[in-house]
UniProtKB/TrEMBL annotation:
It is a single-pass type IV membrane protein. Belongs to the syntaxin family. This is Syntaxin-18. InterPro entries: Syntaxin/epimorphin_CS. The lineage of its organism: Eukaryota, Metazoa, Chordata, Craniata, Vertebrata. It is found in: Endoplasmic reticulum membrane; Golgi apparatus membrane. Component of a SNARE complex consisting of STX18, USE1L, BNIP1/SEC20L, and SEC22B. RINT1/TIP20L and ZW10 are associated with the complex through interaction with BNIP1/SEC20L. Interacts directly with USE1L and BNIP1/SEC20L.
Length: 134
């Protein structure tokens, strides 16, 4: 297995001894690994930049969805409060209706007693008049 050492960690002597330096025909020394590393770093930076753009787009989308979610929750809160008020009103109406029905039943029973009493009295009056006339 070959051990890879980053270029910036090598000593100057190690650089010269390795095949990282070449002598150009013009007599100048050039570093091929620096150019390669620069290209690699530029590629990584471009890749990171693209990833950051994607993440930024996702964060913006999440923020937009969070705003929509908050708006919907507030709408639901208002609707729930309205439903609660309607339920309280309906409960009060049912209680009043039950009381009215109880009162009507009592009044109706009293009215029946009076009608029954009147019919019985009329019947006895007719019997008495029939007996008195004969």
């Amino acid at each position: 297995m070959v051990r890879v050492v980053p270029l910036h960690r090598l000593s100057p002597e190690a650089w010269c001894q390795s095949k990282h330096w070449e002598y150009r025909s013009s007599g100048s020394w050039a570093s091929i690994p620096f150019e390669q590393e620069n290209q690699r770093l530029i590629g990584e930076m471009n890749s990171l930049f693209d990833e950051v753009r994607q993440i930024e787009g996702k964060v913006v989308e999440i923020s937009r969805l969070q705003e929509i979610f908050t708006e919907k929750v507030l709408q639901q809160e208002a609707e729930i409060d309205n439903i609660h008020q309607l339920v309280v009103g309906a409960t009060e109406n049912i209680k009043e209706g039950n009381e009215d029905i109880r009162e009507a039943i009592k009044n109706n029973a009293g009215f029946r007693v009076w009608v029954l009493f009147f019919l019985v009295m009329c019947s006895f009056s007719l019997l008495f008049l029939d007996w008195y006339d004969s």
